[in-house]
Specification:
mainly alpha, Rossmann fold, Glutamyl-tRNA Synthetase, domain 3, three-stranded antiparallel β-sheet, ATP-binding, Glutamate--tRNA ligase, tRNA binding, ligase
């Protein structure tokens, strides 16, 4: 490829479902490489599968890309010099190039019926050889063709495959060699008049001057057919880069259950778009210095597809299936199912916690608000991202968050007024022989001091332990239940400074009243 050729990449999804991890990574790699090279990133919608394409899927794909912050320079809604950018609106263009190929003897009409083709395939199977179309109609005379056309016989259009050894260099996979005799004459226009995937994509990429085709390794087998069509049409052949396969925690190809999870599900689970972009960039690519925490602008300046590995990349978001059991190959039916299946020690969670801790508190609070909307246990005024008290609470607890969906329970804790002992486990804690003495001593120490921060509260709890001879669970659990009514929750040294001394004293007075413990 000439050095002065502008880098132009594209993402070309089919609107037949939502955007999943594999597709999103493809879009991201194309976007980041174009940005890093000062080039252009295009979005093209490949909707020639009319029976499965829907407007809803189209909108969902756009929404997913917009959430990820992937902006296209040309494509739907923004236009560009090589439109239209929706394949169903380009049928006249495909027809023009099809007629050109037929007139040059590089393609021909095939009048075989589906039944005849199936019979040929079965015959090949019976003989134990791969099926390759036999070119039955490749050499029909023009008169024979016209006779069938006048009779209204349905036909497809096949590409006349030249016999040769095809060799190309893939940026990621290396040198690839392919014998075209294994392909045979393949269909480029289906009997319904719509172009095949391999044909339409070449016409579009050629006319849209795509310089790099970056996609998943599953498309590697399509590349020989596409190169043959590029050459036949006289288009420059782009550089190809086939990204590694994505596997699950068990090392197997990502299952339909995990792999088909919508990108928007991660938004609804409380992950920031910056986090997910950073995580996906690491699926098969590494930075030159080995850094993994890479903010958006950094990625857009350093991403290089030449640094992608051809080794499988591990999507560690979901737990490894238990005891060798296969994951059920169906979609998750709820966010709760997805959350339950997630691996708490994933790199996604590590990155997410880092972003939540380090991004400006105003940005985090703004992103958190949608998760507070339905919470009746949080005052309305504290659902406003401009409320300084909400920002203060979030700033204090964010170090403990792996995603924003975890935050509402923590926020709600600060507004509990009617404290109650919740659950059998909490009740059992207060029944312990040493619980009363621990609670009384902590209450006394708290009453007589003026704690200001987490270290002050840690000191008070330590002193209560020294005075009663308790430590570990027999010290902290009674204090937790006495101040929150629960056996589990936010770290006490974080919670206490935000609640404040007076609120803590009142909470203890209410819980001991319910349990029958005396503070005297």
């Amino acid at each position: 490829m000439p050095n002065n050729r502008e880098v132009r990449t594209r993402f070309a999804p089919s609107p037949t479902g939502f955007l999943h991890v594999g597709g999103a990574r493809t879009a991201l790699f194309n976007y980041l490489y174009a940005k890093a090279q000062g080039g252009k990133f295009l979005l093209r919608i490949e909707d020639t599968d009319q029976s499965r394409s829907t407007e809803e899927s189209f909108k969902t794909i756009l929404e997913s890309l917009e959430w990820l912050g992937i902006e296209w320079d040309e494509g739907p809604s923004v236009g560009g010099p090589f439109g239209p950018y929706v394949q169903s609106e380009r049928l006249s263009i495909y027809r023009e190039y099809t007629e050109k190929l037929i007139s040059e003897g590089k393609a021909y009409r095939c009048f075989c019926t589906q039944e005849e083709l199936e019979a040929k395939k079965k015959q090949s199977e019976a003989m134990g050889i791969p099926y390759v179309y036999d070119g039955l109609h490749a050499n029909m005379s023009e008169a024979e063709v016209q006779e069938k056309l006048k009779a209204g016989v349905p036909y497809s259009v096949r590409f006349k495959t030249p016999s040769k050894t095809l060799i190309f260099d893939d940026i990621i996979q290396g040198k690839v060699k392919f014998e075209t005799k294994l392909i045979g004459d393949f269909i480029i226009v289906k009997s319904d008049g719509f172009p095949s995937y391999n044909y339409a994509v070449v016409v579009d990429d050629g006319l849209m001057r795509i310089s790099h085709v970056i996609r998943g390794v599953g498309h590697l087998s399509n590349t020989p057919r596409q190169i043959l069509i590029y050459e036949a049409l006289g288009f420059p052949v782009p550089e190809f880069a086939h990204a590694s396969e994505i596997v699950g925690m068990d090392g197997k190809k990502l299952s339909k259950r995990a792999g088909a999870t919508s990108i928007l599900a991660f938004r609804d689970l409380g992950y920031l778009p910056e986090t997910f972009v950073n995580y996906m960039a690491l699926l098969g690519w590494t930075s030159s210095d080995g850094q993994e925490y890479l903010r958006g602008e950094t990625l857009k300046s350093i991403f290089d597809v030449h640094r992608c590995s051809k080794s499988p990349s591990t999507f560690d978001v979901f737990k490894k299936p238990k005891g060798g059991e296969e994951e059920v190959a169906t979609n998750f039916s709820s966010l709760e199912q997805i959350a339950e299946a997630m691996n708490p020690k994933s790199k996604l969670n590590w990155l997410s916690n880092k972003y939540i801790r380090e991004l400006p508190i105003a940005q985090i609070t703004e992103a958190l608000v949608p998760f507070l909307t339905d919470r009746t246990d949080i005052p309305k005024e504290h659902k406003d991202p401009r409320n300084p008290e909400l920002a203060s609470i979030v700033d204090s607890v964010r170090v403990y968050l792996d995603n924003l969906r975890q935050a509402p329970d923590y926020v709600a804790e600060f507004f509990v007024s009617d404290i109650k002992i919740a659950g059998e486990e909490a009740e059992e804690v207060l029944k312990q022989e040493t619980a009363a003495s621990v609670i009384r001593e902590f209450y006394r120490l708290l009453s007589e001091s003026l704690p200001q921060n987490d270290e002050d509260y840690k000191t008070l709890m330590t002193q209560a332990g020294e005075a009663t001879g308790q430590k570990g669970k027999t010290l902290y659990m009674p204090i937790r239940v006495a101040t929150t009514g629960k056996a589990h929750g936010l770290e006490l040294p974080i919670l206490f400074p935000l609640l404040g001394k007076e609120k803590l004293l009142k909470r203890i007075e209410k819980t001991v009243l319910q349990s029958g413990i005396s503070l005297n």
